């Protein structure tokens, strides 16, 4: 079976967390059909000059800035060489490793967004940068990109997540099906062990106190239970459809599991809990989360999972 090549853009800042993102991609994706671009936006003025020091850049001598830029560029080039070597060790060829260092034009986030719009299958970002200051700066860039890139799938990698097991949150919506199709495109026959998880807020969370008898609550409770059972039966059919789609793209159905967790207090908490207890290193969610109408916002399920899963990789699929 012939599959389309995969183009991955990893935005790096020279930190160990960026290196963890490189290593994650190298271990996760087959080198034979994956091309990785390591992309860095070179800022000619130290961030610390603006963020921590009230002294204007004019007070810094040209010689000091020139020396800093030389050291900075050298450190980024060393980082790129180290990252490229890691990808080679993971089975990538030199033809499938692209190193791009670009001078800052409009801003780090905007420059990355412009680059990824060239047609990449994913933008990969580290959760934090090197040190407290750099972590804050790169973290803000990550947040901007996640919230504003509507047409590109973003992977946010925390530390060194495992690559053997993936959890995908599904709910029967178009957004969730797009996430399943995306997994098939990325992995094909190399799909790792996958758990498709359906979680719902429901009766176990609300309790019968939400249906007081004096307000006709028992009838409403019966109706709510009936609707929950119907939704679960519908999801079983949806699971089968998802498995069939993945199998058609080359995945082994024997490596795919399904689970329904009804009546939870927090869908984001339940997803994270399943990933944590099941040792799933990657969580895959649609941009609209587990709601048909919920866009990715700071209060959405996808956003909450991203906040909880600090040591994992979280994919927000477009």
Tell me the CATH superfamily of the largest domain.
HUPs
- Predict the CATH topology of the largest domain: Rossmann fold
Number of helices: 10
Proportion of strand residues = 15-25%
C-alpha termini separation: 25 Å
The percent range for helix content is 40-55%
Largest sheet: 10 strands, mixed
Question: What is the mean predicted local confidence, pLDDT?
Answer: 84
Q: Structural class of the helices, strands and pairings? A: alpha/beta
Radius of gyration: 22 Å
What would CATH call the architecture of the largest domain? 3-Layer(aba) Sandwich
The ordered H/E elements are EHEHHEHEHEEHEHHEHEHE
- What count of domains describes the coordinates? 2
Q: What is the 3D shape?
A: elongated
Question: Number of DSSP strands?
Answer: 10
Poorly predicted ranges: 130-138, 289-294
What top-tier CATH class of the largest domain fits best?
A: Alpha Beta
The strands making up the biggest β-sheet line up spatially as: 3-2-1-4-5-10-9-6-7-8
Structure notes:
The protein is α/β, with parallel strands linked by helices and 318 residues long. It folds into 2 domains: 6-157, HUPs (Rossmann fold, 3-Layer(aba) Sandwich); 165-317, Rossmann fold (3-Layer(aba) Sandwich). The chain has helices at residues 16-28, 47-51, 62-89, 108-116, 131-148, 174-187, 203-206, 217-248, 267-277, 301-308; strands at residues 6-11, 34-42, 97-103, 122-126, 154-157, 165-169, 193-201, 256-264, 282-286, 313-317. The relative contact order is 0.14.
Quick recap:
The protein is of the alpha/beta class and 318 residues long. It has ten helices and ten strands.
């Amino acid at each position: 079976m012939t599959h389309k090549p995969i183009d991955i853009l990893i935005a790096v800042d020279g930190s160990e967390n960026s290196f963890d993102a490189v290593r994650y991609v190298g271990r996760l994706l087959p080198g034979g059909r994956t091309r990785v671009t390591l992309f860095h936006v070179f800022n000619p003025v130290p961030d610390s000059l603006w963020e921590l020091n009230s002294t204007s850049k004019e007070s810094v001598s040209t010689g000091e800035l020139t020396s800093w830029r030389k050291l900075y560029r050298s450190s980024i080039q060393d980082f790129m060489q180290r990252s490229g070597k890691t990808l080679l060790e993971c089975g990538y060829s030199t033809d499938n490793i692209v190193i791009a260092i670009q001078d800052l034009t409009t801003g780090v986030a905007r420059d990355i967004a412009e680059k990824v719009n060239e047609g990449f299958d994913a933008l990969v970002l580290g959760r934090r940068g090197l040190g407290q200051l750099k972590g804050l700066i790169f973290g803000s860039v990550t947040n901007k990109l996640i919230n504003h890139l509507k047409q590109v799938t973003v992977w946010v990698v925390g530390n060194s997540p495992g690559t053997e097991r993936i959890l995908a949150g599904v709910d029967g919506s178009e957004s969730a099906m797009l996430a399943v199709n995306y997994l098939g495109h990325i992995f094909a026959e190399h799909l790792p062990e996958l758990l498709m998880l359906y979680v719902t807020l429901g009766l176990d969370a609300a309790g019968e106190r939400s249906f007081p008898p004096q307000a006709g609550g028992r009838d409403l409770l019966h109706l709510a239970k009936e609707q929950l059972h119907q939704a679960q039966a519908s999801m079983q059919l949806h699971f089968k459809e998802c498995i069939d789609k993945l199998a058609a793209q080359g995945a082994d159905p024997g490596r795919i599991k399904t689970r329904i967790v009804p009546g939870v207090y927090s869908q984001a908490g339940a997803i994270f809990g399943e990933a944590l207890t099941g040792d799933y290193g990657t969580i895959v969610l649609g941009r609209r989360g587990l709601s048909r109408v919920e866009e990715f916002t700071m209060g959405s399920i996808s956003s909450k999972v991203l906040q909880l899963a600090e040591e994992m990789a979280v994919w927000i699929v477009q």
